[in-house]
Specification:
This protein is an alpha/beta fold and 205 residues long. The chain contains 7 helices and 6 strands, in the order βαβααβαβαβαβα. It has helices spanning 14-29, 51-60, 65-74, 100-105, 123-131, 142-148, 195-204, and strands at residues 2-7, 35-39, 77-82, 109-113, 136-139, 154-156. The protein has a 6-stranded parallel β-sheet with strand order 2-1-3-4-5-6. Strand 1, helix 1 (14-29) and strand 2 (35-39) form a beta-alpha-beta unit. The protein starts with a strand and ends with a helix.
Length: 205
């Protein structure tokens, strides 16, 4: 069975990193899988992809619009969409999103790779899956699988990463933090991640 995966392969966000790691794993361990990919870009800033990541992405990507159109219209394939569920409803707004709904609607089956954790899916997610006849949810969280399986068929699909064997090196900071109240935050610094709330909490201590 042919597979077509649409994801934020070129973005710096966590979803983009996860999508690239899935792709690299397939490239290195399951090269016989019949897979094509299509990238949708939601970020305006440039990305920091390695040469190897770009090579892997190019390997699976359509080379021309004609090749993409022929695949969509003539092949029997499973469509995997690896981006926030609600995003499919306005995917045309994003770079590369013009033909994504067509990819989904022409597919034999479609699978939504769902990342955000919740006790239950929002109503508009359920309505979206019903609208596009989504047959399966793939999730990297077992807790999410348990919660969402009450609403839709789910499968556990963990995120993949390579362990780096780097020697630990101490960082020389210009101040001594031993007797200071310290918060460590590793995240995207935008409103959606709530960094403004984090800063308010820090300065209230």
């Amino acid at each position: 069975m042919k597979l077509l995966m649409c994801a934020q392969f070129l973005d710096n966000c966590g979803l983009g990193v996860a999508a690239r790691n899935y792709l690299i794993s397939i490239f290195e361990n399951e090269p016989e899988i019949d897979l094509k990919i299509h990238a949708v870009t939601a970020e305006k800033q440039g990305n920091n992809l390695s040469t190897y990541e770009r090579q892997v992405i190019d390997h699976f990507s359509f080379k021309t619009e004609t090749e993409m159109d022929n695949f969509i219209q003539k092949e029997k394939y499973i469509f995997i969409w690896h981006f926030p569920t609600s995003m499919i409803n306005f995917i045309e707004r994003f770079h590369g999103g013009e033909k994504v709904k067509k990819m989904l609607l022409y597919s034999w089956k479609n699978i939504n790779s769902v990342t955000w954790e919740a006790t239950k899916p929002p109503l508009n997610w359920i309505e979206t899956w019903d609208k596009f006849n989504t047959s399966l949810l793939a999730m990297p969280s077992k807790w999410n699988v348990d919660n969402f399986s009450k609403f839709k068929k789910t499968k556990y699909l963990p995120y993949l990463f390579k362990l780096q064997e780097n020697k630990e090196e101490s960082i020389k900071l210009p101040i001594n933090l031993d007797k200071k109240f310290v918060i460590f935050s590793m995240s995207q610094w935008d409103i959606r991640k709530g960094f403004d709330v984090l800063l308010k909490s820090f300065f209230m201590e």
